[in-house]
Design brief:
- The chain is of the alpha+beta class and 171 residues long.
- The protein has a single domain, classed as Gcn5-related N-acetyltransferase (GNAT) (Aminopeptidase, 3-Layer(aba) Sandwich).
- It is built from 5 helices and 7 strands; from the N terminus they run βααβββαβαβαβ.
- It has a 7-stranded mixed sheet.
- α1 packs across α2.
- The protein is globular, with a radius of gyration of 16 Å.
- The N and C termini lie far apart (37 Å).
Length: 171
């Protein structure tokens, strides 16, 4: 994948689909290659692919996963989709792939009753902030923010606070 000339890439070559169980290791490697995302265990990504595939999406190009969004419907609030991670391969950045994946996910049958989208974003992650504010604007929804986790609560050196974005009403 790294040998591809970015100017040769056409977004029409990208297939969006729900992840399959066997995608777990590929997704792990995508996240591993995309700091500053928090890397979870390989096991975690296999569980996502098995148990939450209907609310997750991968972007695939030439048998390579170049994008991934993990999300789930919140227990106790099934109309709320919580987006956990958004990952785009470095080669694919700047092509609105994250927007395409988010819109694709939101249009799927398992998300048809979603009226609220939540996510958390660190203050320095301006690309993610822009993605979710643009999503809210395109759906004529409000985007409320509040501190979700303070730096001290994360107990990790160098980890920023997590800001909750709550986008509603959708649909």
């Amino acid at each position: 994948m790294d040998e591809t000339d970015p100017s040769d890439i056409d977004n029409k070559q990208i297939v969006l689909r729900n992840p399959r169980f066997e995608d777990g290791l590929k997704i792990f490697k995508l996240i591993q290659a995309g700091p500053p995302l928090d890397l979870n265990s390989v096991y975690y990504y296999y569980i996502l692919c098995r148990d939450f595939s209907e609310t997750c999406v991968v972007a695939e190009m030439q048998d390579t996963i170049v994008g991934f969004i993990s999300a789930y419907c919140r227990p106790g609030e099934p109309s709320c989709l919580f987006v956990w991670q958004v990952a785009v391969a470095p080669l694919m950045r700047g092509r609105h792939l994250a927007t395409d994946m988010l819109e694709w996910l939101f249009s799927q049958p398992d998300c048809e009753d979603i009226t609220v989208l939540e996510t958390t974003v660190t203050p320095s992650n301006k690309a993610s902030e822009k993605l979710f504010r643009r999503f809210a604007e395109s759906h004529k929804a409000t985007c409320e923010t509040a501190t979700f986790l303070e730096t001290a609560q994360l107990d990790q050196e160098g980890h920023e606070a997590e800001i909750l974005f709550r986008i509603r009403p959708l649909r």
